[in-house]
């Protein structure tokens, strides 16, 4: 019998099976080739990109801030140093309750709760809690036992002398960059170069160094050595603070300079501030007025007028000038003296500080030569101090006769305190102007000198003979009969000059009733070692420089002579015997009135038939009408109550009988 099973031909499904196997094999081969191709693409073409992405996850470039360079006084006493302190940060995602943590942190660190909560809310994985904290604050945060906190070291600026010299040294911000003073001026030199190191980041995001911290010297800024003397700076600030307080003034400044070198030995400002806690101080108190602010110096400029006139030979030491008995008309204005003087020599002009005779000497000198002499003494140009924003001052050309007169006694022009002391140092140094400077050396950590200042002669202004003559004349200022006997010293000959300048009213224009009292002097007069300038701004108890500023000068000068070991003057002759006396003696001077009341130096003459509108602002209607009628003016009222506006404005020059409109209102 035939076996059909063995005799049957294999069906075609075998062929389809092979086909399926081939297709499946092809699919896997294609998939393998695609995977291989993808691997080749990632490993060859995308290698750098993927490596960067991986490194971004666990490798970090850690920036190590440089240690800021130190600032020293001339004897090596530190004024500014940097110390390593802790700063606290946190990973907010690890805090179980952000609000509760914010309250706890604010209480421990004495911060505002809302401020802390805002920082923790904004930061996902990192937020600063407080930077540059004390060890006690670190322990307080650790005691909270909260997770996610970290502590890192940061350099913090520390000022061991506190307020001493703060206006010169300046201050830095939380980021370690200078904001004021020399900290700002020498930012690049002091800050140094920050270091960048490779490190890993662990699972909690903490940064780990792999090569250790760099050498401190490699990341330290340069050190700056000043010309300031810590002892003289302390004495100057102490004396200035006392002078400002006793005069009930708003501010003051003191400068002490070595006239032979131009080195500034002390630069004090009042009010003072503590740079260790700058956030507690008003921004205005940080301003270095002595270097940055300009002001009208007043009668201290008379010494330069006399010196220039003697140098140009337009006057001689024994010439005499008529001082018009205290009142002299120049055009529409009248120049006043505080005393009624007749004939005076140049020495007596300086001794009693006559505005009128100083103006007459300026007339002989002439406009061009007066302006040139002021500029030769360094006014109207920056002295080149390292401090940013140094004032320049201005010497406008005196086109009008009254401008020539007022500039001769330091009004209608402006200068800085540094310009003033540099010019006076030129007289003390035999007529040679030296460039003033505050920074003596800047040295990097390797000992390389980056900057070194040396005494630099700017120009010769007057001859040594003229300088000696003027200094001898200025000695008479501090004796009986001069304007500053309170500056006289028993063991040393002193030469100096007072100044009482009217201050400009920037709102109303013209001069206000506020004054700037000053005294500048040098000692020993026969061979000056220091020049000292004291300026008191807006004194209220007394406005004369001889009474307000001269005592502070004497206090500083006494300490300076002892500190610099200057031997006493062996001879203290009466200055009046050194120069010829006046041909005609001046009449007996009237006593200067007690208190701060001072007559205006310059007044405008009112033409006949004209009158100035009185100030009736704030007065009741009846009082205002009476005052206007007394001034021969016709009042016209609108409203009721007190005067809130008047036309023409107070002080306007109008004809007699003119109408003045007053607007009255009842204040709510």
Number of helices: 21
Task: Tell me the span between the first and last alpha carbons.
Answer: 137 Å
The unreliable regions are 206-217, 574-599
Percent helix: 25-40%
Structural class: alpha+beta
Largest sheet: 7 strands, mixed
Q: In angstroms, what is the radius of gyration? A: 39 Å
The mean pLDDT is: 82
| Total strands | 29
Strand content: 15-25%
Question: What brief labels describe this structure?
Answer:
668 residues; alpha+beta; five-stranded antiparallel sheet; 21 helices
Annotate the secondary structure layout.
Layout: H1 4-7, H2 13-45, H3 47-58, E1 59-64, E2 71-72, E3 78-90, H4 98-109, H5 113-122, E4 127-133, H6 135-142, E5 149-158, H7 166-169, E6 171-172, E7 178-180, H8 181-185, H9 187-191, E8 195-201, E9 207-209, E10 223-226, H10 230-247, E11 251-257, E12 264-270, H11 289-292, H12 302-311, E13 321-322, E14 327-330, E15 333-336, E16 343-344, H13 346-352, H14 355-365, H15 367-376, H16 401-408, H17 417-428, E17 432-434, E18 439-443, E19 449-452, E20 457-460, H18 464-474, E21 495-504, E22 511-523, E23 530-537, H19 545-548, H20 550-563, E24 602-604, E25 610-612, H21 621-630, E26 634-638, E27 642-647, E28 653-655, E29 659-665
Tell me about this structure.
By secondary structure, the protein is of the alpha+beta class. It is about 30% helix and about 25% strand. It is built from 21 helices and 29 strands. The strands form nine sheets. Strands 2, 3, 4, 5, 10, 18 and 19 form a seven-stranded mixed β-sheet that branches. A five-stranded antiparallel β-sheet has the order 12-11-23-22-21, with helices on both faces. A three-stranded antiparallel β-sheet has the order 1-8-9. α12 runs antiparallel to α18 (about 465-475). It is elongated and about 145 Å long. The termini are far apart.
